[in-house]
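Could you show me some protein's one-letter sequence and the numbers that encode its backbone in two labelled lines?

___
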Amino acid sequence: MWSGPRNISTALMRSWGSRPDTVVVDEPLYSHYLVHTGFTHHPEWDLIIRHHESDWQKVVETLLAPLPQNKTVFYQKHMAHHLFDHMSLDWTEQLVNVFLIRDPRDMLLSLSEFFPQPAIEETALPQQVNLFRREQQRTGKTPAVIDSRDVLLNPHGLLEQLCEAVGVDFDPCMLTWEAGPRDTDGIWEKHWYSNVIESTSFGNYRPKMADVPPHLQELYAECQALYDELAAHKLMP
């Protein structure tokens, strides 16, 4: 699942993690991202680097390793902006790659609460589009795209569509989960996951009511064009 920030990606990880046949992993390339960018403004960046593997090739080995006994699905929650040009994408060809998007206005208003002046690369949209096009060309098929708004409005319908698209049976247990942290959460969970940790299901859709501020208008236009390309292919329940 290739997402951008502030896209209900953690709630979806909870959803898939509630399946008895599924193993989940939480942003396994985040530590490498911090090492490569030198972004020390991320909360507890040094702790993340110490706690999580920062060698992307070693991380990939774990992402392609055999599943534990009695598990048949490996749900990988990735932030697409954790990909860089120096990283080969050949390993992604062994995965079923799907994409999670969010309306750019809502996404930017949420993201700017944490990072007041994000760059286009930090939205993950350029990386999502690049990988989407690559998958489309490689497979001759259109990868599954889901919109966070649609998931919140109709979680049952969207998850059924997504399961069908990736070739697994839908399980109603994906609609609810127990509150609390998980051992599979990244060490950054206390900074980013407060709402999800308290949740037991997908929340209601609440659009942002504010306007995009002037200093983000140019970025907003860039994001909108990339979002529109992906949204043209999104699943509908």
